[in-house]
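Below is one protein, fold included:
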Amino acid sequence: MDTLDKLLIREFVLFFLAILIGVAIVYLGVEFFSQIWGLKMNVSQVLILYLCKLPNALQLFVPLACLMATLLVLTNMSRQNEILALYSSGVSSIRLISTFVAAVATVSTAAFLIFDPLVPALRKKVYFMEKGIDPSHENWLSIPRGGYWYRSKHLIYNFGRFVPKTNTIEDLNVYQLDSNFQIRERIHAKLAHYEENDWLLKDGFQIRYPAEQDFPMGKEFKERRAQISEKPADFKTIKIQEEMMRLRELRTYIDRNAGYGLDTTAQRVHYHERIAMVFTPLIFILIGIPFGLQPLRRPSMARSIALCFLIVFIYLISFRVSVSIGQGGHVPALIAGWAPNMLFLAGWTLWFLRKRTHATFHT
């Protein structure tokens, strides 16, 4: 690492930390003042709550901080004619770009390794504090190895997942017990939908174990009513939230549910979205660097900051549209998660090739 690299990296790190911490604090401050009248906690609890939210806010703004830090460093160098001096000394654009790419790649990797285990754990704590849930129920928000188990009077039942938006249970197994706690009947259904104050089971089978016979009796069904007394509201407190899982836990959760034949489209889109976000800072700086490498101009700091927010705004719109299309099942999850990064990278590649071709032609 030569003197130029040390200078660029030092300036980048100083801007990056200042921007990241500043924007995260402003974000949490706006959230606090918008919810201040609805918080039913004492001062110490509020302080702990927002300290737990801080890592999530820091993770959220890593791409923006990388982009703004890079542009501000280059803008400051352009205003002082340092970039023009570097070009005059034979330092190429590729040389400058490679230093920022290496720095941002290191920051992105470190952020992933730090925030991937930290943020889900703190999100659980925030969830408990905001909902007033007993922390002893934390296992409800972890990955269930065999699904959820529930006991209701003479029934014990197990299900893979509850979907609150549609009031649907997926991969349901119901066990009916007699007075001696012996299984007398087992019912399995791929889906159970709550209709007319009752659960309607679909696409399953029933196995009975008569006391007077040695062999069970089984039959399939398309639809039948269940005997479950719980309503959808009773299950909504134990909903799994993908944001509360580490990436490898989410992968395990998806594989397990896919093995049960459940719909995992939304979870797979979220999985690829989280992986793609690790590379988003690199995409951002590749787009932003050409606007900062203008040795014959003196761009203002305000212009650079406005450009950062414009790039992030366009990216977020395209990202939300892509994720929504993917969750609707219109495109594969891999494409939905990676499409914005690929489109922005393709646009930057075309611009770069066009600029190089234009420069070669005029030369």
Confidence is low (pLDDT under 50) at residues 137-146, 358-363. The longest helix spans residues 93-131.
